[in-house]
Specification:
- It is a single chain.
- The chain is α/β, with parallel strands linked by helices.
- Helix content is 43%, strand content 15%.
- It has helices spanning 16-27, 40-50, 65-79, 109-137, 158-178, 204-213, 222-233; strands at residues 7-10, 31-36, 55-59, 85-88, 140-147, 183-190, 244-247.
- Strands 3-2-1-4-5-6-7 form a seven-stranded parallel sheet, with helices on both faces.
- Strand 2 (31-36), helix 2 (40-50) and strand 3 (55-59) form a beta-alpha-beta unit.
- The longest helix is centred in the middle third of the chain and has 29 residues, at 109-137.
- The chain starts with 6 loop residues before the first strand and ends in a 7-residue tail after the last strand.
- 46% of the residues are buried.
Length: 254
């Protein structure tokens, strides 16, 4: 299925990286559901940029299965067809600030629970609520957003990194389980992006250090990262599933 034929749900699509992912799909003429939890103004303004025939902003907390189901029904009613493609981008409240992070000595389990709920429960909810319609269509694309930190924990964000590592495992088991239905599941993992809401607290010298450490000598932008998300939704990736593509300028090489 061409990208222009797809109906794409981008969770956390009202700001940051999610905004760039929405813009990338919309530029390719996909119809996009711009999910948000708290960023109403940003999501609604972004949807307005493309008009109601192409974009719809919907509030839902992806950790709540009932809210996810209601959002998908609203999207189906609006576009006249079900979501075919899900980008699990929503990030539980988190700031990439190494100086303020919880350390191994003081981090609480509640911090892990918050990140696991946002990453793993959120992705499970969107998958389960779209699964029937994807099977019926004989087509589905599940794309999760990961991190290069579980390969290169240059800053030990224990809760965030553990949750994303678990999300990669879920992505791969989904790929194995859903492949017979022509549903693929892949992850795109980035490093620090210049710049999103989550990375806005990062000191400039950290950006400079990372840029100098990459073969490309620069920090990846959200727009560049979003291009890789498009790949997994495109026909070019029709035989690719269970993979983790690292998009960080070559900082981490698999």
């Amino acid at each position: 299925m061409q990208i222009a034929e797809q109906i794409v749900l981008v969770t956390g699509g009202g700001r940051g990286l999610g905004r760039s992912v929405v813009q990338a799909f919309a530029t390719q003429r996909a119809r996009v559901v711009v999910n948000y939890r708290a960023s109403a103004a940003g999501a609604e303004a972004l949807a307005a940029d493309y008009g109601p025939e192409q974009a719809l902003a919907v509030r839902a907390d992806v950790t709540d299965a009932d809210q996810v189901a209601a959002m998908l029904e609203q999207a189906r009613a609006h576009f006249g067809s079900a979501v075919t493609t899900v980008v699990n981008n929503a990030l539980a409240d988190f700031s990439f600030n190494g100086d303020a992070r919880s350390t191994a000595a003081d981090i609480g389990w509640d911090e892990f629970e918050t990140q696991f709920a946002g990453s793993v429960r959120g992705a499970l909810n969107t998958t389960q609520q779209t699964l029937a319609s994807m099977r019926e269509a004989g087509f589905g694309r599940i794309i999760t957003i990961g991190t290069n930190l579980f390969q290169n924990p240059v800053v030990p964000y224990h809760d965030y990194t553990a949750a994303k590592a678990a999300l990669l495992s879920l992505t791969r088991t989904l790929a194995a389980d859903l492949g017979p239905h022509n549903i693929t599941a892949n992850m795109v993992s980035g490093g620090l992006l210049r710049t999103t809401d989550a990375s806005s607290a990062t000191p400039e010298e950290v950006f400079d250090f990372i840029a100098a450490s990459t073969p490309l000598r620069r920090v990846t932008t959200p727009a560049e990262f979003a291009d890789a998300v498009l790949f997994f939704a495109s026909p070019w990736a029709r035989s690719v599933t269970g993979q983790n593509l690292v998009v960080d300028g070559g900082l981490v090489m698999n």
